[in-house]
């Protein structure tokens, strides 16, 4: 299986492409293949949340669209951590109750996944998962019952990870494993919109499954082979920001789960200096 990442215009727009030449799952017959797009919401340029339905009848969640993990998890109705249920209407969370779904199938036991480097755990299951008019049947997922205190002030109900199968949690079938065989072309593209003001849930961009987003993204694409095949990782030859230019070869990842650019302190300081940006110590950004 070969995966490529295509970059078009740094900073605002990029494509992600998966070319699964020898895919291990049966591909749907040609006439059933699809291309779909779905907008997502931007919260503080930090999280980009996609509406995803899980179960039958559908239980609706706002999941972080994350290319740096390969697992789908939602908050469980019996989640014991303080942050599972939110504190006000604004950050109220949706939680999953398997007893309310006719398509829930019990999984092999418990899962342990990472969220921002901290462990999340719960039980494994299989469910009908729908977004953008596509339905992944019997998709492996986790219902989280224990999680760190991380995002109590945001209406995040979990994560949908479009990372590569090498990062699968507990040997589960990843969302991409379920998704790619259903698509016209085995690719997806993510367009991240540019917002200057702080966004508390406004439109943040569009994810397109099965094709490139030719409406929002530039036509001139630059193909880059992946060098880290768990994350969408690739080598950068160098980059330029205002008057600052760096020509070192670096390993980088393209991660929709974090809306910021992270780099060693010396590089960040040089970018800050060149752009006149201010460092917010309390946020570490
Ligand atoms: C989950 O759903 C079942 C069936 O509707 C219900 O009896 C149960 O009380 C729900 N669980 C919680 C914690 O609300
Ligand atoms: C999943 O992995 C965690 C540790 O990584 C382990 O504690 C758990 O038992 C595993 N679950 C299954 C179903 O193998």
TrEMBL record:
One of its GO terms (cellular component) is lysosome. The active site is at residues 66, 255. Keywords: Aspartyl protease, Disulfide bond, Hydrolase, Protease, Signal. Coiled coil: none annotated. The keyword Signal applies. GO terms for molecular function: aspartic-type endopeptidase activity. GO terms for biological process: proteolysis. CDD domains: pepsin_like. Residues 1-20 form the signal peptide. Residues 48-285 form the Peptidase A1 domain. PROSITE patterns: PEPTIDASE_A1. Disulfide bonds join 79-84. Transmembrane segments: none annotated. Belongs to the peptidase A1 family. This is Peptidase A1 domain-containing protein. It comes from Caenorhabditis nigoni.
């Amino acid at each position: 299986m070969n995966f490529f990442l295509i970059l078009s215009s740094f900073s605002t727009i990029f494509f992600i492409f998966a070319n699964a030449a020898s895919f291990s799952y049966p591909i749907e017959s040609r006439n059933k293949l699809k291309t779909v797009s779905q907008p997502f919401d931007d919260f503080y340029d930090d999280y980009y949340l996609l509406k995803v339905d899980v179960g039958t009848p559908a239980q609706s969640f706002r999941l972080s669209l994350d290319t740096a993990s390969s697992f789908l998890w939602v908050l469980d109705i019996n989640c014991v951590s303080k942050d599972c249920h939110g504190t006000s209407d604004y950050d109220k969370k949706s939680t999953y109750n398997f007893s309310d779904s006719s398509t829930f199938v019990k999984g092999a036991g418990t899962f342990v996944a990472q969220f921002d480097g901290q462990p999340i755990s719960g039980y494994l299951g299989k469910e009908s998962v729908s977004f953008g008019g596509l339905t992944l049947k019997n998709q492996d997922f986790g219902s989280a019952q224990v999680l760190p205190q991380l995002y109590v002030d945001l209406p995040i109900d979990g994560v949908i990870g479009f990372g590569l199968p090498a990062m699968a949690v507990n040997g589960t079938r990843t969302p991409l494993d379920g998704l790619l065989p259903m698509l016209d072309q085995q690719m997806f593209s993510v367009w991240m919109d540019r917002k200057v003001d702080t966004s508390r849930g406004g439109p943040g961009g569009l994810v397109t499954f099965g094709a490139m987003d030719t409406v929002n993204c530039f036509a001139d694409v630059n193909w880059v082979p992946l060098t880290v095949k768990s994350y969408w990782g690739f080598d950068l030859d160098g980059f330029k920001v205002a008057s600052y230019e760096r020509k070192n070869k670096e390993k980088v990842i393209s991660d929709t789960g974090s809306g910021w650019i992270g780099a060693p302190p010396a590089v960040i300081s040089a970018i800050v200096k060149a752009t006149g940006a201010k460092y917010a110590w309390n946020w570490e950004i």
